[in-house]
Structures are given as C-alpha cells and as structure tokens.
Amino acid sequence: MANELILLDTWVSPFGMRVRIALREKGIKFEYKEEDLTNKSDLLLKMNPIHKKIPVLIHNGKPVRESGIIVQYVDEVWHDKAPLLPSEPYPRAQARFWADFVDKKVFDAGRKVWVTKGEEQKSLMEEFIGHLKTLEAELGDEPYFGGEKMGYVDVTMVPIYSWFHAYEVSGNFSFESHCPKLVAWAKRCMQHDSVSKALPDPEKVYEYVLQLRKRLGIE
Questions:
Q1: How many angstroms separate the CA atoms of 69 and 28, rounded?
Q2: Can you tell me the mean pLDDT for 64-69?
Q3: Average pLDDT along the chain
Q4: Sign of torsion over alpha carbons 207, 99, 116, 51
Q5: d(CA 84, CA 19)
Q6: What pLDDT, in 10s, does the model give residues 163-215?
Q7: What is the pTM of this model?
Q8: CA 157, 163, 167, 168: dihedral to nearest 10 degrees?
Q9: 4, 59 in Cβ contact below 8 A?
Q10: In this predicted structure, what is the pLDDT of residue 2?
Q11: Has UniProt tagged this entry with the keyword ATP-binding (predicted)?
C-alpha cells in the first residue's frame, strides 16, 4: 500500500510537534505544510471542517485529526517500527492516562498562563509547576516515561520543553530548580534526532509568546 503522508501543521504548535516526533522516530517520510492560522488554507478547512485546527495528518487522502489520536494512529499503522505504546493492555492504559493528564492539566494550565497577568498569572504558574512535579514523581528514576525507551507519554509531553525558556523569562524562575529530574529527562529526549528536529528554537518561541500577548492586549 502506498503511503502518501501530508502533515498540516504550524512550527510553534506543541501538538504538531508530537506528530513530527512520532513520524521521525519511526523513520516515516512525510510532506510538511506550514499553516498560517490567521489565514487557514482551503485544504485545512476541507480536512478538518469541524474544529478547523492543526495538526491534521492526511494519509493517502484521508485525514486523521487531533494530535493524540494521530500519534496513536501512526503507532498502530507502523507498529513494527519503534513502538510508542506498550503491547500489554494495562501499561498501555497507564500511558494513555498520563498522556491525558498532560493534555488536561499541564497544557491547559500552561496555556492559561499566557492569557493572564499579575496575581492570577502567578497562581496559574504555581499550578502549572505543581502538575510538572506530579509528572516528575511519576517518572521517578526511569530514563523515560516509557521506561528504557522513549514512548507515548514522552512524545506527548516533550514538546512543551521548547516553551520552558519563555515561562522562565516571563516568571523569572528556573524549571531546573523546581523539577530537576524532569529537565534532565527533557534533555535526554533532545538527544533523539526526532525530538531535536521537531522542537523550535526557544528564543523564537519566546518572541512568539510576546507577540501573542500583545495581540491579546495583555502586554
């Protein structure tokens, strides 16, 4: 079966980064199409008419939407190459639980930090760090959330590392002092080409955040 793969994405999206990491970790070639989210392409609107969001993976003309679903889809289709999810039902369920925690707690709190200021922002930053500490406890002394190898939770979580610098500069603090094991884990993940090629320059992310806050009238 031919595998024509097109990824509709935007460079700064941690959700899109997940898909790029998963595809590259498995050595799968794909065509990347950068989307301007202020002027969405006809292709994006056609392939994701419900949410009109990136990322969308188009596999032989058929769209797969939502980053977590896409990563699982990629893992199932190319299951013989660098599997991301455990083969056994219970560890697989646990991986999905922690990936869901990342989406509903970590990313949600992290997003809210950028659309607030003052005491509200400070409170949300503390909540955000609290969620990271929960993840750090789950990681324990393992090199990866997937154990000895990078897995589904790692792929889900590591994109936010590219945003750490922006949080640190804005909040005048260090993640390494709060979550040293998590930072060490992120640096370990960055040794994978699949990760280092997917994550953008942290300085560019910070510039993007400043522009975003100005656009929202927060700065």
A1: 17
A2: 98
A3: 95
A4: positive
A5: 12
A6: 999 999 988 889 999 999 999 999 999 999 999 999 999 999 999 999 988 98
A7: 0.95
A8: 100
A9: yes
A10: 67
A11: no
Residues 6+ apart with CB under 8 A from 36: 10
Kindly tell me if the per-residue pLDDT of 1 is higher than 60.
Answer: no
Distance CA 74, CA 45 (A): 22
Q: Give the three-class secondary structure for 183.
A: helix
The tokens describing 191, both together, are 């040794």
Instruction: Give the whole-angstrom CA distance, residue 200 versus residue 217.
Output: 25
CB atoms within 10 A of CB 35: 21
Cα 47 to Cα 6, 37, 93, 113, 184: the distances in Å are 11, 14, 29, 31, 38
Distance from C-alpha of 58 to C-alpha of 47, rounded to nearest angstrom? 8
- Name 162's Cβ contacts closer than 8 Å, sequence gap at least 6: 14, 17, 199, 200, 202, 205
| 189 within 8 A of 195, measured Cβ to Cβ | yes
